[in-house]
Amino acid sequence: MSSETITNIPVHVSMIMDGNGRWAKERGKERVYGHFEGVESVRACVEAALETGVRYLSVFAFSEENWNRPQEEVTALMGLMVKAMAAEMKALDKNGVRFMVLGNRERLGDELNAEIDSCMDMTAHNDALTLIVFLSYSGKWDILQAAKKMTAEMAAHPERAEEIMNMDVNGFDRYLVTAGIPDPDLIVRTSGESRISNYLLWQSAYSEFLFVDTLWPDFRKEEFRKALDSYAKRDRRYGKVK
Ligand code: IPE
Ligand code: IPE
Ligand code: MG
Description:
The protein is α/β, with parallel strands linked by helices and 242 residues long. The chain has one domain: Undecaprenyl pyrophosphate synthetase (3-Layer(aba) Sandwich), CATH 3.40.1180. It contains 8 helices and 6 strands. It has a 6-stranded parallel sheet with strand order 3-4-2-1-5-6, with helices on both faces. It starts with 11 loop residues before the first strand and ends in a 10-residue tail after the last helix.
């Protein structure tokens, strides 16, 4: 299917990439093998996003809760992040992709943080597609850090307290780590689970959801395009009568 046949393209598509472990288990392999293969799916989705005109693609790669996994898996995942970023960045830059990592960066190691900074600096000027990797992220953590930021701003600038107190929901957006990024139009979760697992809680207020049985390592271009087709048929009413 060519991009011309797809109408009503979402601006921001977000992926809850789930099922890597089960994908590996089905093949009698270690869980990390599934994570490794999952990187290929991210690459395929980036290509599909560029081809279809999606402007923001975000992926949930590691939640705050995922720190509670066995140390061995956490270490393998963090190592994979560094390697994948280093390996993919030149191609991403060449294709006009702006790369970002959002989440609780304080919990990431020095090596990973240095790689993230270098990739973000290198691609900051690109505007064909923004690829956001949510790393050490959770929705409740984001809302809490936003509230703390707001309170600190009030304490530092008492003269602005009234303005802040009168703020509307859009004003609160700028304290979230996603400040300046449009809310996801479509959130896809793979692997048959129908939950949000503490992902973009505030930002998903009016997102369309799609839950698919496909395991993340099998989610490639065709699945991405099918997700866009599903989105194109949705009627977003935002509480109004149409
Ligand atoms: C998603 O796959 C990747 C991460 C959450 C890091 P999982 O590792 O959760 O795979 P399953 O759900 O156990 O199959
Ligand atoms: C959600 O997957 C988090 C990411 C995709 C990074 P999990 O596998 O951690 O979610 P649960 O535990 O099934 O809710
Ligand atoms: Mg999972």
